[in-house]
Write a structure and sequence with these properties.
654 residues; alpha+beta; six-stranded antiparallel sheet; 21 helices; flat; binds ligand ME8
């Protein structure tokens, strides 16, 4: 019989910077879903990739002095790039698309031409607001406080000849799709789309640009490049071979079963995407699922805030499976989740180390100890086992209902109810007491079998979440290949009655929270520093000073005759200066952090002399020494302005 098909996608990521834990969240969720469907026997196509065109990429490459493709290749294929990250996270995508791939570009040109020939794309002139980082056009009314409604950054005026897509024509069918079907999930996202975008009136969408060149050229009108979202959205079809010869799976897998996307791009996927597909007279994807963001203390991760969380570091510290598990166990998929290292460590310690890890290691250790590793055939089952057996045998159905609804957290909750029940079952049956009585060996064997069987069922259902660890657990409990499968996950008694266990390494060692947090803190500090600009100077003042006012400042060369630290102050140095008048002048300066007194004696500095005297730490300071200040990697640096010693004391600076 032909297998049922399941086609799932992640968004294609902008390779404008290294990916963070938020991107990893979506990809891990999609991977878990793909693995779950494969487990259920589906023929799965799982697609991810990168969205490589647009002004932002062009700008970054220019800043770095490389070509866009050199920049992109490094971030996609380079060390610790996107491909490396997905390999590390054990992402089982069947295909990876880069929108700079030749076959994709050619398909997009054909798609653009088809919509043009149909009259759904027409030429006009664009006047509006453009947000460069988001590659988004906005109308005045869509702006929030005059800024981009998505990212809150500045937008700028843009006017140019451009092609438009007749989005307005599809307002009604798209509204119906959203309001009358379950196309967009979770249902809570529907109102936002209809009220904020469709009801105010859908305007036609500008779908070409002429002000930059890093995009797919409109082949029948050189100078125009295709708007990056048209290019990006159709990746879901070109990657199957739509209007190209690279692949041949479009009939097989299209329409997609689900596109997983973050909430800020639901608008593109639930309005623009179906409208363009309607225009092309193509079937619509079955669902778009708009998931929430991982936030830090309530705000979005961003490089500029210096709060991005690096998945490499977490995976190195805690293991890939632990990280995958945490992401889906802790946060409901549809809403935002507040990420913290404490939460991560807690989840690992409670669920993986205490509950799952302990159950597996205790059970295997007991089978080793009491039966030399192999269970005897003779067993004595009891009604006291019924509760655990009942729960474990019906787990698959509950889990399936949650997974079909993309409720990963709830699916795991069901599994952990059974794991916790099994741990309680150990306390209730007290195997250590049974072991003392030779006559109770058959009962002890039954208890061990029940535990191993429960572990087998739970492991099957955990395998999409923690694939590597699941395989290890199966090996430890001696599960044969035939009993690791979905069809046996609700069949109690599938494990051989005389199974042999194997003791192995501790799968999820308990984490010393204090130590791990301190290490992560130190790494984060270092990273924050690295993210800071190399060199920063104060912005120039925009206000002018009139010449006469400036001339009132008495700037002079001064010779440093003596210099000492001021008692009880860690900042102040006291300078005795020759200002050319023949009388010593005292100036105090808060620069001890940068200089030792003896370094400066004999040097010629610059001071402003006609400031009113100021008392500091009991000394009177008559003037101010001039220094140059700037910031290097976030640290303030200062250099006392020293001039040529040939300049005599008292020389006026003008
Ligand atoms: O939007 N938590 O690319 P992108 C959860 N190229 N998800 C997050 C997140 C966070 N903190 N930060 C980002 C694009 N994401 C387009 C997509 S698809 C045809 C084109 C998610 O790299 C974000 O919500 O900016 C989005 O779904 C995905 O990462 C890609 O973001």
């Amino acid at each position: 019989m032909e297998k049922k098909k399941f086609y799932i996608t992640t968004p294609i990521y902008y390779p404008s910077a290294k990916l963070h834990i938020g991107h990893t969240y979506c990809t891990v969720a999609a991977d878990t879903m793909a693995r779950y469907k494969r487990l259920c026997g589906y023929d799965v196509m799982f697609l991810t990739g990168t969205d490589e065109h647009g002004q932002k990429i062009e700008n970054i490459a220019k800043e770095k002095g490389v070509t866009p493709i050199e920049f992109l290749d490094n971030i996609v294929k380079g060390e610790k790039g996107i491909l490396d990250l997905w390999k590390l996270m054990n992402i089982s995508n069947d295909r990876f698309i880069r929108t700079t791939d030749d076959y994709h570009c050619k398909s997009i040109q054909k798609i653009f031409k088809k919509m043009y020939d149909k009259g759904d794309i027409y030429k006009g002139s664009y006047k509006g607001k453009y947000c460069t980082p988001c590659e988004s056009f906005w109308t005045e009314s869509q702006l929030v406080d005059g800024k981009c409604p998505d990212c809150g950054r500045e937008v700028h005026d843009a006017e140019e000849e451009a092609y438009f897509f007749r989005l307005s024509k599809y307002a009604e069918p798209v509204r119906k799709l959203l309001e009358e079907t379950d196309f967009l999930k979770p249902a809570s996202r529907v109102n936002e789309m209809v009220n904020n975008f469709i009801k105010p009136g859908l305007e036609d969408l500008c779908v070409s640009r002429t002000s930059f060149s890093w995009g797919i050229p409109v082949d029948f009108d050189p100078g125009h490049v295709v708007y990056v979202w048209v290019d990006a959205l159709f990746n879901y079809m070109t990657a199957l071979g739509y209007l190209n010869d690279k692949y041949d799976d479009c009939d097989k897998y299209w329409p997609a079963d689900v596109h997983f996307v973050g909430k800020e791009i639901v608008r593109f996927h639930s309005i623009i995407w179906p409208a363009m597909l309607m225009s092309m007279e193509l079937p619509l994807p079955k669902h778009v699922y708009g998931h929430g963001w991982l936030v830090i203390n309530g705000s979005k991760m961003s490089k500029s805030k210096g709060n991005v969380v690096d998945p490499y570091i977490l995976a190195e510290h805690f293991g890939v499976d632990a990280l995958r598990f945490f992401l889906l166990r802790t946060f409901p998929f549809g809403t935002d989740g507040n990420f913290s290292n404490e939460l991560l460590i807690n989840t690992i310690n409670i669920d993986l180390a205490n509950n799952l890890g302990n159950l597996v290691s205790r059970t295997c250790a007991m089978v080793e100890k009491y039966f030399g590793g192999t269970l005897p055939a003779e067993k004595e089952f009891d009604t006291a086992d019924d509760d655990l057996i009942g729960l474990a045998s019906t787990l698959r159905d509950k889990y399936e209902a949650e997974m079909e609804n993309y409720q990963f957290q709830n699916a795991l909750e069901e599994v952990f109810k059974v794991i916790n029940r099994a741990n309680k079952y150990i306390d209730e049956t007290m195997p250590w007491a049974l072991a003392k009585d030779e006559g109770k060996k058959p009962r002890l064997a039954a208890v061990m079998y029940n535990l191993l069987e429960t572990v087998r069922i739970c492991t099957t259902l955990l395998s999409p979440f923690i694939p590597e660890s699941a395989e290890k657990i199966f090996d430890y409990i001696g599960a044969c290949d035939g009993c690791r499968v979905w069809e046996k996950a609700n069949v109690w008694g599938s494990l051989s009655q005389t199974v042999s266990v194997k003791k192995g390494e501790n799968l999820f060692p308990r984490i010393d929270a204090e130590k791990a947090l301190a290490e992560l803190e130190a790494i984060a500090k270092e990273q924050k520093k690295e993210a800071l600009p190399e060199l920063e100077t104060e912005p120039l003042l925009s206000e002018n000073v009139d010449f006469d006012t400036f001339c009132k400042s008495d700037l002079r060369a001064v010779k440093i005759k003596a210099c000492e630290a001021v008692k009880k102050s860690d900042k102040l140095l006291k300078f005795t200066l020759d200002d050319g008048t023949g009388k010593d002048r005292t100036i105090l300066s808060g620069i001890h952090k940068y200089y030792e007194p003896e370094q400066l004696v004999g040097k010629t500095a610059v001071a402003i002399l006609n400031l009113p005297p100021r008392k500091m730490m009991g000394h009177e300071s008559c003037g101010m020494l001039i220094s140059a200040v700037h910031t290097e990697k976030g640290e303030e640096k200062l250099h006392l302005l020293l001039v040529d010693d040939a300049i005599p004391a008292g020389a006026k600076l003008c």
